[in-house]
Structures are given as C-alpha cells and as structure tokens.
C-alpha cells in the first residue's frame, strides 16, 4: 500500500488525530476510536451486503470490524491513483493464541454463537444478491483427488528424485486411498442435501474462521476479516477451525473433545453432522496441501521446508486417526 492511500481518509467525515502503518495497511486514530484502511477488490454491492450483516451481528451483541460509509454514502472509496479501499473499525486487541486452551475454547463458543444467529437468513438477506454459495466439499475433495493423481504420476516420471520425492513416492498410494475413501463416504452421506438446504436458507458460513481472524481485547472476542462469507453448511467452519487447531496442537485428543463439547453446548450437532465431520477430518487435507505446494513451486532448488512439513505431518498421523476413531 503506497502513501497516496492516505488521501482516501479525506473522503470520510472523520477528525483524524494520527495515522500509522499496520499489517501492510494504514490505520488512523479518531478520538477514542480506531479505523483501518484496507485495499478492496470487490463491489460496493458486496460491501453493502456485508453492512447488513454487520448491523445484524452488532444488534445481537457481536463486535466486528464494521465497514464505514464515505462522504458519498458508499463503502468502496477510490484513491487518487485509482486503487479501491474500504475503511473499517479497528481495535487494540491480540490474535487468538492457538496454543492456549482457554482462547481456543472461547473462540469455539464464539463460532457456535455466530452460527446460531445466522442459520436461516431468508428474511434478513431477501434482497441481497452479493453473497454466493461457498465451497461444495464433494467437489473440493474430487478436485484434490485428481491433483493427487497428477502429482503421483509426475513424481513417478522424475528420474533423479530427491529425498522428499522418494519419501512421497513411498506413501502416495496410501494417501490417495484415504482421499478416495473419504470422498466416497462424503458422497454417500447427507452432505449434498445439506449443502442445497444451506444455499436455499441462505445459511451463513464464515469461510475463513481461524486464529488470525478472531481478536481478544480483554473483554471479549472481536470477529474480523469476514469477506469470505458465503452460503454453505456451517459444519464446514467447524471442520476448518477444528482441523487447523488440532494440527497446531499435535492432534491433542483431550483438546479436540473439549472443542466439540463447547460447540455442542451452544449449537448441538446431530448424529448425521458428527458423521460428516468425521468424514471431512478423515480426508488427508494436510497431505494434499504439502504436495500441492511442492508441485506448484520451483523444482530447480530443494526446499527443506517441504521435508520438514512432511515429517511433522507423518508424526501426527496416528494421533489424527485415533482422534477421529474416538469422536
């Protein structure tokens, strides 16, 4: 972000005391409040829809990085050099500590509460056209499976394989099998009908609920960076949150059970949802990420980071399967 972005502040009715850099953006202080200016590459219509959602969440007691209108009543503002920005509320707060059990469980409760208030939004969002269906996990898994096959064939043809590639070759069939089984099980489950129902009911899925996007200010949790909001089964948020937290905590079974328990206290899962959650967790997502990153990176130099990630992944595998079996 260049300094010409600062001229965007002139298009808002704010008495700015000072500006500062924050995470590649510009922030400003206005009396007791803070705002952050972010580059934005979507429509004003999308942000107007977000404003409806922000207002509804705030009415329900949530704190979020609500977008601010400019002097013309728009949410998207154009700078002198043609870049587009939005201005949002900001806070003196810290990201969720993904290694702190209390913070993780508090984040889980917030996710469940968020899901509770946004399950059926046909009335709230009846005139909104800017939100769209999110990821269909059946299609995601099927695409990943094709990519695993492509990478498997690529490695097989490599003549001078390095240690990482030889390691992959030894386990590729096993993880392709796991991927296919998980995909088949998802196709046999009630997931497809749940996805259709979520789109029909305009069920809100956060789309990017992780420790970077929930902040703690000492009094509560603030939800930020919700630009990936979509219509999809809310179980997908729980899957993303649970998987990422468990990967960061060596698939700690006790912690995983507590996460599900805390979510259930506010938004109980039924037996079919448990089944779908277990199926999604059984898909070797981390394995796909590692090999996909390798395949799309520069092969001219050897990355020890890839080797480290694969080693760490394999160390956690028994615990991952044990957690899933005991859910």
UniProtKB/TrEMBL annotation:
Domain of life, source organism: Bacteria
InterPro entries for the chain: CotS-like, Kinase-like_dom_sf
Protein name: CotS family spore coat protein
